[in-house]
Design a protein that fits this description.
The complex is a heterodimer. Chain A contains 18 helices and 36 strands. Chain A is of the alpha+beta class. In chain A, strands 30, 31, 32, 33, 34 and 35 form a 6-stranded antiparallel β-sheet that branches. In chain A, a hairpin with a 2-residue loop joins β9 and β10. Chain A is elongated, with a radius of gyration of 46 Å. In chain B, α2 runs antiparallel to α3, α4 packs parallel to α6 and α9 packs antiparallel against α10. Chain B is globular. Chain B has a 4-stranded antiparallel β-sheet, with no helix packed on it. Helix content of chain B is 36%, strand content 22%. The chains are: A alpha+beta, B alpha+beta. The interface between A and B is large, with 37 and 48 residues.
């Protein structure tokens, strides 16, 4: 290599070749490249090297610079900053090489300066320096670098040389001698690339690139940033974060937004003049802004400021009884009544739970609206297990049955049926885990699988039901038993209320038969009407008489007060014809058809003026021995009612019915508690003797015989009290009573 | 397990039900779920197929084929899961379709004795109870029936199909045997334990009958209306409508100082051509049967006179407990259905002396016929096949009318004394007697009598132009209602000869002058 023929260093065409040379230079220094790779940032290392140099600690500076050179080589090929940094490192190493006490290394210094210019042709060595070094540098630079003034139209077009972006200025740009591609591009214009020849040492040449306009553009800025911009329904991109263009400052002020709220510019390009485009600016939780743009010419339009209005609403969750826990999208949201504000538009899941029931629903929130969610909490049985008679079903089959039961019966009635997670574990009783088939009974309450290892007694069932229900926030538990002996889909479903000893059993002959499943679902629907609307009269159907014939009038009822009499024939209710006593009962059962819901107008044969009669409500009581009643389901219904807003009279009637249901499932202690809270007013319906009888039954089953006898004596004194509206005389029950356990 | 043949069995039930008395008996044989058996799978499969086939054949009224299959199962595969069902179905067939009570009883006993806790056993016990009461109405028969029904409740307490039926039938047995208190309690239990069961509706009807018979007509009306409300569109609701109409007329209208009946505008012009009507009856289809000298004729719903059955010397007409009509002729009861050669010859002693003076006859619930032998002044009892039996009571009477209620109490109207006696079959005693002279009025010339389903006894007094209704089982015949229309007023019946009650208790009176008059 000739020391002064510096141009031989120059690459012919491609800058990467030059970098290969640089790498070679670095390697030939014999310095371990990674010596300082992990010690501090490039800036720190440069500062450290400079400090050593300034303190004439050249030996210390050299390895640091060697390390920097090695570290920055790859990055400097594409990164302008790294290129400047490596150029600085070369420059400093060149100076170190001629200052080191081990002797001046001019050859190394010259190589470094060459490498420096290859990395950054713009790089200069400050004048107050070693004169020879400056001279050598000038020679090298003259041999390697030429200068060009770039002019680009429009001036704000993005320009790069050799793929490296540059800022176009009216001052010369230093480039290595050789061919350089100069590329300019801008939205709305055709991209253009021009190759220029640079000759080292030649006079400064001027190169002009004028781009050809090809489309119009519209610039958009938004508040807030990061809004999606759609053009004719297609997503074009998002408005970037600020800074906002100053052109929109005035408009932003008008819109009462500060500039730091405004996004950077998003440019819609490729627009054809005289063509309309539908532009939408969208962002979640904001009202979208839609507008049409019609560029008139091949120009740049905008920026248009679009301030998006928040699209939020409020959700108010209420329950008949306050204090239920609300969960909104899986996150706790307080207790009812709960107000959840600033909810973005959209669909959300809400769950409400209390000890008497749960609610799960979806709510759709719209901008500016308050959505009321009157959550009707439904008590739930948790489906614990699916078992089989004689042989357990496969896990897959169990899952199928769980899904089928939950889907087909899950929300059929006043109670819901929810599947517990598959990882549910039965509690342990006396060191044994409860067997999944603990509730597998047939309709005769016979154990379905006599080979089952474990049979729980009634008291234990009562405890277990309570334990599991409490733990999982349920109101009862359920199990399903497949009886393959009767058919592949023959299923027994056992329902056990929390604190119940005896389950309700539902038989589904074919789980895949919709009609049979519907039949079972019907049994879970509705609840017992606890009051019967009454006019205080008894009307019957008589052949050859059109209408309902009154045969009895209660002296305490509305009919008596309105002067209706035995023999009167009712032919209309509130103007609606009734041709039978059944039709009269049906009309009264629908409050919508009554005047003010508490008075009715009765048309009577041969009477010119209708009778206005008060409509009363007669309490009703479920029969404790009724084997067609699903008492466990009723318990859930009644417990939910107790938690609801009832009048004292209604509450007493519900409690009494709850007590009867608890008696039927063997929970005498809870039944007693309910009866003790019953305070019935005087009037038609359930008599105090009936209550006394039921209380006596509770006490007797709890072993409190003297008090039980006292209650039975009270109950037996009545000659006309009935155990239910249509049931036996209480006195007769007392007379026939057997005394269990005495 | 094969699918259970519920549907075919129900079809059979419906077919059979049409022939049965709807209230007194249940047509439904039950098929309960079956447990596993000890038979091989091949045997089980064949047995099941045979059973299915039998059910299908019965539904197609091909009883011969059905019986073949059932006997095959019973004989060859007694250990299969359908053997008990086959026995039950066979016994049921023998009892209800083949009229072989004793054979049916034997099969049902075999089922109950050999199949322990199998699912068809409750049905077997129910059948045994029904057979016992179909064969006799003695206290032993009642005890046997009640015992079988009790066993259903005792051994199959969780069986929500069989137990309510057993309770209902038990209550019926109590009522028919006169144990009204027990009946009231047991009827009540059906509804308190099984409020949704169809048996509850039936039990409430039975309860209403008991309440009427114990003077609690107001509660009875309430109960019957409850049936209408709680079991709408059922046969029981229809019957409750009929019975409440009767109670309304007999109790409510009189309490309002209104006559129990009013003249209906409905007329039977065809009846004006008829003379000398001896007796009347109205069957379940609404036909009015008129016994005249030339035989039994009937008026259809439109009032058109149609030729019926019987011969020239017809003395009367009556319906047996199944509702089948019979013409009364000297020495013969002629059924409407079937060839005349099957008519019953009623002879006495071994001398085959034909009873030629027979003005009245009736039938017990167990099928035997009661015949008034006025030549001898007795009432005789005959088997359905004609064999004479010892009557349950002895009474010297020249009966011109007999009426039998569902308890097999027999009301006898005596030609000479004009008195009416009510005799009880189960005890052979006289329950009550309505003398011709009562407090405040007298029966001048009673010509016809009839029971309604609630036990009221209606008496038509020709000379006073009056109908008197007596309360059920009143010892001295206390009238609950009387009905007459003043002479020369529209609807007056001063020359009445016979009457009948339709299912709603409407009065159909034949008057020599006015023809058939209807009172509602």
């Amino acid at each position: 290599m000739r020391r002064n023929d510096y141009s031989e260093w120059l690459p012919r065409f491609s800058p990467p070749w030059s970098w290969a040379v640089v790498v070679l230079v670095a390697m030939t220094t014999g310095v371990a490249l990674d010596a300082v790779q992990s010690q501090g940032s490039v800036e720190q290392l440069l500062a450290q090297a400079r400090s050593h140099y300034d303190n004439t600690e050249f030996a210390s500076a050299l390895p640091i610079l060697d390390g920097l050179v090695g570290r920055l080589q790859a990055q400097a090929q594409t990164d302008r900053t790294a290129a400047e940094q490596i150029a600085s490192a070369y420059e400093m190493r060149a100076r170190v090489r001629i200052e080191t006490s081990r002797g001046t290394d001019w050859a190394g210094a010259i190589d470094d300066m060459k490498a420096m210019l290859l990395a950054s042709p713009d790089h200069r060595i400050p004048k107050p320096n070693n004169p020879r070094l400056v001279r050598e540098f000038d020679l090298i630079r003259k041999a390697m670098v030429g200068e060009v003034i770039l002019v680009v139209n429009p001036a704000d077009a993005a320009t790069d040389v050799d793929g490296r972006p540059i800022v176009v200025k009216p001052t010369p740009v230093s480039l290595l001698t050789g061919e350089h591609p100069v590329r300019a591009r801008r939205t709305g214009y055709k991209e253009q690339t021009q190759k220029i020849q640079v000759l080292a040492g030649a006079p400064v040449q001027t190169v002009t690139l004028t781009l050809e306009r090809e489309s119009a553009t519209v610039a958009i800025v938004s508040v807030p940033p990061d809004a999606e911009v759609y053009v004719d329904g297609k997503l074009g991109g998002k408005t970037p974060p600020g800074p906002a263009p100053l052109d929109v400052a005035e408009e932003a002020a008008k819109a009462k937004v500060t500039m730091d709220q405004v996004s950077g510019v998003f440019v819609i390009e490729g627009l054809t003049p005289e063509t309309s485009y539908l532009v939408e600016v969208r962002k979640g939780c904001y009202v979208k802004s839609g507008f049409t743009v019609t560029p008139k010419a091949l120009n740049d339009y905008g920026p248009l400021l679009k301030v998006l209005q928040p699209a939020t609403g409020t959700v108010v969750v209420t329950t008949p009884q306050p204090g239920a826990s609300v969960s909104f999208e899986g996150k706790p949201a307080g207790k009812t009544p709960a107000t959840i504000e600033n909810v973005c538009e959209g669909d959300y899941g809400i769950e409400v739970s209390a000890d008497y029931g749960r609610f799960a629903g979806k709510v759709t929130v719209q901008k500016g609206q308050t959505v009321q969610v009157p959550a009707q909490l439904k008590p739930a049985f948790g489906l614990l297990s699916v078992t089989g008679v004689l042989s357990p079903p496969s896990s897959r089959r169990q899952a199928e049955v769980r899904t089928a039961v939950e889907r087909r019966l899950g929300s059929a009635g006043t109670v819901s049926l929810v599947s517990l997670p598959a990882n549910f574990v039965y509690p342990r009783i006396d060191d044994n885990s409860v067997e999944p088939g603990w509730l597998s009974f047939d309709l005769d309450r016979k154990v379905l699988d006599p080979s089952a290892k474990q049979q729980l007694d009634a008291a234990t069932r009562l405890d277990v039901s309570k334990q599991i229900s409490t733990k999982y926030g349920l109101q009862g538990v359920a199990t399903a038993t497949l009886d393959a002996r009767e058919g592949p889909n023959h299923l027994y479903l056992s329902l056990l209320a929390s604190g119940s000893a005896h389950p309700d059993i539902l038989e589904i002959v074919d789980l895949e038969n919709p009609e049979q499943v519907r039949e079972v679902a019907r049994r879970l629907e509705g609840t017992r009407p606890l009051f019967r609307p009454t006019l205080g009269l008894l009307a019957v159907d008589v052949a050859d008489v059109a209408g309902a014939v009154i045969i009895k009038v209660d002296p305490d009822g509305g009919a008596f007060k309105s002067n209706l009499k035995i023999g009167h024939v009712i032919t209309g209710v509130n103007g609606q014809a009734v041709n039978s006593a059944s039709a009269l009962a049906a009309a009264l059962a629908n409050p919508a058809k009554t005047v003010g819901n508490d008075r009715v107008s009765l048309t009577v044969t041969d009477q010119s003026v209708p009778f206005q009669v008060s409509l009363g409500q007669t309490p009703r009581l479920v029969s404790m021995t009724d084997k067609t009643v699903l008492f466990n389901k009723l318990i859930l219904d009644f417990r939910a009612m107790v938690a609801g807003g009832l009048t004292p009279n209604e509450l007493s009637v519900v409690r009494l019915n709850l007590a009867v249901s608890l008696l039927a499932v063997g929970n005498f202690a809870d039944a007693r508690k309910e009866i003790e809270q019953v305070k019935l007013p005087s009037g038609p319906g359930v008599s105090k003797e009936t209550v006394a009888y039921l209380y006596g039954v509770c006490l007797e089953r709890l072993g409190e015989y003297p008090e039980a006898d006292r209650q039975f004596a009270l109950a037996g004194a009545s000659t006309n009290a009935l155990i239910t509206e249509d049931g036996e005389l209480v006195a007769e029950l007392v007379r026939r009573r057997k005394a269990p356990g005495r | 397990m094969s699918p259970q043949p519920i549907l075919p069995v129900l079809i059979i039930s419906v077919l059979v039900a049409a022939q049965a008395r709807p209230f007194a008996d249940s047509p439904e044989p039950r098929v309960f779920p079956r447990p596993q058996s000890a038979a091989t799978s091949t045997e089980s499969e064949e047995a099941k197929n045979r059973y299915q086939n039998a059910v299908t054949m019965l539904s197609k009224q091909n009883s011969k084929e059905a019986v073949k299959d059932l006997l095959f199962i019973i004989g060859r595969y007694p250990k299969t899961s359908v053997a008990d069902d086959a026995l039950l179905l066979y016994a049921d067939y023998l009892f209800r379709l083949d009229n072989k009570s004793s054979e049916a009883q034997a099969q049902a006993k075999q089922l109950v004795d050999n199949y322990g806790q199998q699912n068809a056993v409750p049905g077997g016990l129910l059948l045994l109870g029904r057979i016992a009461l179909a064969k006799a109405r003695t206290s032993d028969a009642f005890d046997e029936a009640i015992g079988n029904y009790s066993r259903v409740q005792q051994f199959f307490p969780g069986n929500s199909e069989a137990v309510p039926e057993a309770l209902y039938r038990m209550a019926e047995a109590y009522r028919l045997s006169g144990r009204i208190d027990d009946a009231l309690g047991t009827y009540g239990q059906v509804c308190s334990d099984y409020s949704q069961s169809p048996w509850c509706a039936r039990a409430t009807l039975g309860l209403a009958v008991c309440l009427v018979q114990t003077g609690q007509w107001s509660r009875a009306i309430e109960k019957l209306q409850w049936v209408r409300t709680s079991f709408p569109d059922t046969p029981e609701a229809g019957r409750a409508h009929q019975w409440n109409t009767m109670l309304f007329r007999l109790y409510v209208r009189p309490s309002l100082k209104q006559p129990p009946f009013t003249l209906s505008s409905r007329q039977f012009p065809g009846a004006r051509m008829i003379k000398d009507v001896k007796a009347m009856a109205i069957d379940a289809s609404g036909r009015t049967l008129l016994a005249v000298k030339g035989g039994v004729q009937f008026l259809d719903e439109a009032g058109t006179l149609r030729q019926g059955f019987g011969s020239n010397d017809c003395a009367g007409v009556f319906l047996d407990q199944r509702g089948s009509a019979f013409a009364i002729q000297p020495g013969r009861l002629v059924p409407e259905l079937g060839p005349s050669s099957t008519s019953l010859e009623i002879t006495k002693d071994t001398k085959l002396k034909v009873l030629d003076e027979v003005p009245a006859a009736g039938a017990f619930s167990t099928g035997e016929f009661l015949v008034a032998d006025n030549a001898a002044g007795t009432i005789e009892l005959f088997e359905p096949a004609g064999k004479i039996l010892k009557p349950p009571f002895s009474l010297s009477v020249k009966a011109i009318r007999l009426a039998v209620n569902d308890r097999d109490d027999v009301a006898v109207l005596d030609r000479d004394s004009k008195a009416i006696s009510v005799l009880r079959r189960s005890t052979g005693t006289q329950v009550s007697r309505m003398p011709s002279t009562l407090q405040g009025f007298e029966l001048r010339n009673p010509v016809d009598i009839a029971f309604d389903p609630l036990g009221h006894l209606y008496v038509l007094d020709r000379d006073s132009g009056r109908v008197v209704v007596f309360s059920p089982f009143a010892k001295t015949g206390t009238p609950v209602a009387t009905f007459s229309i003043p002479e020369k007023t529209a609807g007056a019946f001063q020359r009445a000869r016979a009457f009948a009650l339709d299912p709603f208790g409407r009065l159909y009176i034949f008057d020599d002058r006015a023809g058939v008059l209807i009172y509602q």
